[in-house]
């Protein structure tokens, strides 16, 4: 792999609130430096490898860090990346970006798109999904917590069980279909593209200072994705059919409006939590990479008891 887990840890040091200066620095360093990378009018970056392929891969470039953030220290303890508990790690969706970069570097055929403003309601993918792409039949977002989920529902069904089972079998490692998804960029394409899913990439506790990322799982998943022939995955779902009801209880109005309202309510709760975050010292670029990027984890003590007034 061109981009190692050490590169992933360095990428995690960038705190990238939507539209922030740090997000643009990150995009210019990791995406715009690729010769064939292009930008649409909204600012989404994309690249096509192998001509008109039927599979699109997505990740998003923003995180839920506070505005005007700089860079942060990231620590590695027993193969798990984390912060010191005073800032968000941002593996959602830095790890997805890292995975796509490796697929691109290995020239894996596909349409790759790096979406803007996913953490503000999927605005970038909402813009991108308006463009007709009749040759695209599958959208795979790499933006899911955990280690085993192939998402079939994001408020409503967005991919078929047949597709999810086939992808889960191709990946292996205990992956299986899950109906428990929430919104991510692939959902915005579900009206026009048959199979739209989201895949677990090994992070936990997203959007909180407790967020962690398994580096070994990210590396393993990357190797598995490189071996899959995505053109052979079945296409079953008809996007023109009425979306079926994800929820089992009666009386639920199965609509995107309800799903979006639930997401907005959840996001408001997250914003209130943001107000409780303690200020974090800026990243010092003159420090050694060993300290700044956390490969020397002696300063991190997982047994440290929280002090009075700490809420995490």
Short structural description:
This protein is α/β, with parallel strands linked by helices and 312 residues long. The chain is built from 8 helices and 12 strands. Helices cover 27% and strands 16% of the residues.
Protein described:
The chain has one domain (5-235, 253-284): Zn peptidases (Aminopeptidase, 3-Layer(aba) Sandwich). The radius of gyration is 19 Å and the shape is globular. By secondary structure, it is α/β, with parallel strands linked by helices. The model is unreliable at 244-256 and 274-302 (pLDDT under 50). α3 packs parallel to α6 (215-227). The chain contains 8 helices and 12 strands.
SSE order and pairing:
Blueprint: H1 5-11, H2 21-30, E1 38-39, E2 45-49, E3 55-60, E4 75-77, E5 80-82, H3 91-105, E6 110-115, H4 123-128, E7 138-144, E8 149-151, H5 161-171, E9 176-178, E10 195-200, E11 203-204, E12 212-214, H6 215-227, H7 256-274, H8 289-292
Parallel strand pairs: 3-6, 3-7, 7-10, 8-9
Antiparallel strand pairs: 1-2, 2-6, 4-5, 5-12, 11-12
């Amino acid at each position: 792999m061109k981009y190692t887990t050490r590169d992933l840890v360095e990428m995690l040091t960038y705190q990238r609130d939507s539209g922030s200066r740090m997000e643009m620095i990150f995009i210019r360093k990791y995406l715009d430096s690729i010769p064939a990378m292009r930008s649409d009018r909204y600012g989404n970056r994309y690249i096509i490898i192998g001509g008109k392929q039927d599979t699109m891969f997505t990740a998003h470039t923003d995180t839920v860090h506070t505005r005007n953030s700089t860079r942060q220290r990231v620590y590695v303890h027993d193969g798990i990346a984390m912060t010191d508990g005073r800032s968000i790690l941002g593996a959602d969706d830095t790890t997805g970006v890292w995975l796509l970069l490796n697929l691109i570097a290995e020239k894996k055929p596909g349409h790759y798109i790096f979406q803007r403003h996913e953490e503000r309601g999927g605005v970038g993918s909402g813009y991108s999904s308006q463009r007709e792409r009749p040759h695209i039949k599958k959208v795979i977002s790499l933006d899911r917590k955990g280690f085993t989920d192939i998402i079939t529902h994001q408020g409503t069904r967005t991919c078929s069980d047949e597709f999810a089972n086939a992808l889960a079998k191709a990946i292996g490692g205990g992956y299986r279909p899950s109906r428990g998804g929430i919104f991510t960029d692939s959902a915005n394409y579900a009206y026009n593209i048959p199979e739209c899913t989201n895949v677990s990439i090994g992070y936990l506790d997203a959007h909180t200072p407790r967020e962690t990322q398994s580096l070994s799982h990210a590396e393993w998943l990357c190797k598995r994705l490189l071996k899959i022939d995505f053109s052979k995955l079945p296409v079953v779902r008809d996007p023109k059919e009425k979306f079926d009801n994800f929820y089992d209880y009666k009386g639920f109005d199965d609509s995107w409006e309800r799903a979006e309202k639930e997401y907005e309510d959840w996001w408001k709760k997250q914003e209130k939590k943001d107000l409780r975050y303690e200020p974090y010292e800026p990243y010092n670029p003159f420090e050694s990479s060993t300290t700044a990027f956390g490969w020397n984890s002696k300063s991190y003590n997982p047994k440290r008891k929280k002090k009075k007034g700490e809420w995490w």
